Amino acid sequence: MNTLIGLHRQFSRFDACLGDWGGSLASLAIRWYVGWQFMKAGLAKIGDWDATLSLFRDEYQVPLLPPELAAWLGAGGELLLPALLFAGLLTRPAALGLFLVNAMAVISYPQLFQFDCPAAINDHFYWGALLLVVVAFGPGRLSLDAMIGGKRPA
């Protein structure tokens, strides 16, 4: 029991040292990690636009939108919204937008649930959860949102 109490005290000192910066560093890491996942997907889409259009016409089942428009919106969202996350600019709307892009990917590609390896669908769930953390807690001090809002480091 004393070992657990000692361990708790060590972590408490570490938390006290970081102060507000701990959450800011965590937010920065989440923003960059999730943003990079979507940026890679967007770059792959524009890297072979014919293949992207073919996927949106034949594989993905995006409701209500023509495949060409869905492809443009998907690629655009996967390129613009991560850039906003990286900078921490309009962070909450960008994270919410990527959450919706992620949800649409899951909805429009039901084969994700049928793969033998659950990693594909699990990744989408993890990314969605991390994006909701950013929506709920914001970008932290290490962001343009904080600079524009006047939150300067102490």
TrEMBL record:
A Pfam family this chain is assigned to: DoxX
Highest taxon listed in the record's lineage: Bacteria
Assigned keywords, A-Z: Cell membrane, Membrane, Transmembrane, Transmembrane helix
CC per GO annotation: plasma membrane
InterPro entries in alphabetical order: DoxX, DoxX-like_oxidoreductase
Localization per Swiss-Prot or TrEMBL: Cell membrane
Lipid bilayer topology: Multi-pass membrane protein
Entry's transmembrane regions: 69-87, 94-113, 125-144
Recorded family membership: Belongs to the DoxX family.
Record-given protein name: Putative oxidoreductase
Organism: Pseudoduganella namucuonensis
